[in-house]
Amino acid sequence: RGLYLLISSLLQALNGFVLVVTSEGLIFYSSHTIQDYLGFHQTDVMHQSVFELIHTEDQLEFRRNLHWALDPPHTPEGEPSPAGKSLSSSAVTYKLDQLPPENSSFLERSFVCRFRCLLDNSSGFLALNLQGRLKFLHGQNKRSEDGSVLPPQLALFAISTPLQPPSILQIRTKNMIFRTKHKLDFTPLACDAKGKIVLGYTEAELRMCGTGYQFVHAADMLYCAENHVRMMKTGESGLTVFRLLTKDNRWKWVQANARLVYKNGKPEYIVVTQRPLIDEEGGEHLRKRSMHLPFTFATGEALLYQSTHPLPGFPDLFQCKGKPSKSKKPSCSHVGCSQKNGIDPRSLLGAVIRQDKAVY
């Protein structure tokens, strides 16, 4: 355990993450700190093609650096690019007598590639400097077409660091990235330790009020719902910046990316990776946000959020409330009022009605 804590501390202190990529472009290993820079969880990328993460204009450069002589086999004209071909077809198998010694400077690598980044809403990519070397990856027990065991093959062992040094603010917020788990309707199920520090709730307090939208600022609900619908269709929400209600009745800006987790081919739950923002960052995102209805009631998507209340003449959202509650946690006492008005408490309108007026 002591060794694990030491390695974890070293990775956190490192301005970057560790990446091991096989000769055919499979990510054999990534340190968990990849999430701090690209937004992907370690399990999202392990054993996946690295070319799925790399900008199309940089894929050839990355493939060159996987070859010991920087000269990978050329793709004949008219055939798919290396990233689009099967991984096995782009692999290069070496005999040990064809390679320079493992400590040779020919195997050292230092190059720049742009990687997909869920934490960057400007270009969607982050330029990384990969510095390391090609080394033999042992214990793979791969076999050739005739069934014979192949010798260990070269893989890229590299430290990936952002090309632009991080600001003090980025360093501070990087260490507070947290994850939450939700049902498919966004009802909270679990929250990690950092999330409990940022938001102030216990898991029991997050679960007891039902819909997760009750913790979302009313002005951000339709925006979050739009990305919720996108995630249900595509598996990923994309970058979403909104305000969450903390236990001390304050609004905390977060930058989030949600993805579906599947079991037996069916979506089972949602995992959300969230990074706290300062108010100035959140306000800037709000000014840039396009102010349009994210969906029309004609498409039927809106019925996911409210199917029983007529559109004309929305009631005063807080007409069910008496004096503002002094409780420091979201009030759950207005479910009955919502149901009497014919409003589904799980809908967006129901979530707003159940919020304490005092928080606004």
Brief description of this entry?
Residues 7-73 form the PAS domain. The protein is of the alpha+beta class and 360 residues long.
Tell me what the structure shows.
By secondary structure, the protein is of the alpha+beta class. Among the domains are: 1-70 and 107-143 and 151-165, Beta-Lactamase (2-Layer Sandwich), CATH 3.30.450; 171-294, Beta-Lactamase, CATH 3.30.450.20. It is 24% helix and 22% strand. The protein contains eleven helices and ten strands. The radius of gyration is 25 Å and the shape is elongated. The protein starts with a helix and ends in a 6-residue tail after the last helix. Pfam families: PAS, PAS_3.
Write the element-wise H/E pattern from the N-terminal end onward.
HEEHHHEEEHEEHHHEEEHHH
| E-strand count | 10
CATH superfamily of the domain at 171-294: PAS domain
Q: The biggest beta sheet, please?
A: 5 strands, antiparallel
Distance between the termini: 46 Å
Coarse shape: elongated
CATH class of the domain at 171-294: Alpha Beta
Ranges with pLDDT <50 over ≥5 residues? Answer: 76-90, 295-329
Provide the β-strand percentage band: 15-25%
Q: How many helices does DSSP assign?
A: 11
Q: Mean pLDDT, nearest integer?
A: 76
- Classify the helix fraction into a percent range: 10-25%
Strand order in the largest sheet: 2-1-5-4-3
What is Rg?
Answer: 25 Å
- Which class do the helix and strand fractions yield? alpha+beta
CATH architecture label name of the domain at 171-294: 2-Layer Sandwich
CATH topology of the domain at 171-294: Beta-Lactamase
